[in-house]
Amino acid sequence: MIISGLKILEEVKNGNIIIDPFDEKKLGPNSYNITLANKLVVYEEDVLDMKKKPTCREIIIPEEGLLLKPGELYLGKTNEHTYTNKFVPMIEGRSGIGRLGLFIHVSAGFGDVGYCGTWTFEIIATKPIIIYPNVEIAQIYYHTIEGEYYLYTDDQKYNKYSGKYNNDGEIKSSMLYVEFDKEVEK
User: Of 6, 40, 121, 161, which is most buried by a Cβ count within 10 Å?
Assistant: First the structure.
């Protein structure tokens, strides 16, 4: 079940949801608007290999905006750092962003209970579009979770799930290659 905006506010005040920075004006009926930081990362290779660490370069989004090319993948991140060990966080693009043909995630809008950090956007434009830093590009919302669960963490003594993207404030490219390295170790 998705929790309401008023419940998000209550859980923020109780310390069960952390959104930093938090601005009550960005709270919606059942979500909270999150913003795009001023940095993007792009892959340098024309062909990506899942088994290899990709080479990336950073692009700064200037205040006057940055033109995105259609069909290119840009990794971005939220300005907001989030954490909850009580709810399942998820992100989606705002409707006004979607109506401009801008995808904010390819397939990774689902968070894990216990995830701590900024969120990485997988941005793809369907048409040339100028984007700006700090725009309210997406919304985060929260589901309740039933039954026993393990927290998503990078500390393996507390859980069995890999937290390779946890506790990071930077844009992280795919770390899928790490899973292939683990197969070799077996």
Answer: 121
Residue pair 113/158 in contact by the 8 Å Cβ criterion: no
Give the H/E segment covering residue 141: strand 136-143
Domains and CATH numbers, the chain: 5-46+54-167 (2.70.40.10)
- Kindly report, residue by residue over 129-170, the tens digit of the pLDDT: 999 999 999 999 999 999 887 776 655 555 555 566 666 678
Residue given tokens 């088994």 in the structure block: 51
Q: What is the pLDDT of residues 75-96, one digit of tens each?
A: 999 999 999 999 999 999 999 9
Instruction: Please name the residues in contact with 74: beta carbons below 8 A apart, sequence gap of 6 or more.
Output: 40, 41, 42, 59, 68, 121, 122, 123, 124
Strand 120-125: give its sheet, edge to edge: 56-60, 39-43, 74-77, 120-125, 102-103
Residue 66: which H helix or E strand, with range? strand 66-68
Q: Are 32 and 26 a contacting pair, CB within 8 Å?
A: yes
The answer to whether residues 29 and 4 touch, using CB atoms and an 8 Å cutoff, is yes
Q: Which residues are catalytic?
A: 122
> For residues 89 and 140, is the Cβ–Cβ distance under 8 A?
yes
Beta bridge partners of 91: 140
